[in-house]
Amino acid sequence: MKKLMLFFTLACSLLLSGCATTFSSQVSVFHEWPAATQDKSFIFERAPGQENNPEHKLYEDLLRSRLQNLGFKEVMPGATPVLKVEVQYATTLREIQYSPFWQPGIYDPYWGLHFNRGIYRRHPMYYSPFWGLPAYPRGWSDISMRSTYLHQLQIRITELNGNKKLADIKASSEQFNPEISLYIPYLMDSALKDFPGKNGSTSKVEFTVNN
């Protein structure tokens, strides 16, 4: 018994000390980036609603520092840049079904649907003081609903003269937390990894995040 308790204590300590997590995203890259080195001066182009938006300004600041690390240079007001950079972001609510590991459900490979096992037990009726109505307690089922959020980021780089699109990069990540601001820095790092990347590719990008 003492050995078992010692093992349990050590296991808990390892779990608590392991603060690093893995951020995973899908990145799609389309570009016609020139092979030769070119002038990378740029300005940000803002969509309606992004002007004077504190949230968008923060995201521009985050992107600006990352672009500077790649050799881009934002021009001062009045100067003429070569490129314009746009950044868009959005969150989509999604719902998934999952089953507790201790009670696997039934999976239909033809329809791709996940069914419960029909284990509902009817209990004696009781009175609900909250609703003031009679109700039945819910029986056990192996299916639960859980919401997830698809956070998406798009970075578009275009020539100012001629309006030729040079790079269009999209990164997305599915998370349980609905707040996109927590993930914008990681989505940017994923999108700009190995910039400009392989044209026409969609890949999974992972890296360790220290909490």
From TrEMBL:
Keywords, ordered alphabetically: Signal
Signal peptide: 1-22
Protein's UniProt keywords contain Transmembrane: no
Protein's UniProt keywords contain Ubl conjugation: no
DUF4136 domain ranges (all copies): 28-197
Pfam family, one: DUF4136
Source species, domain of life: Bacteria
PROSITE patterns noted in UniProt: PROKAR_LIPOPROTEIN (PS51257)
Record protein name field: DUF4136 domain-containing protein
Organism of this sequence: Undibacterium umbellatum
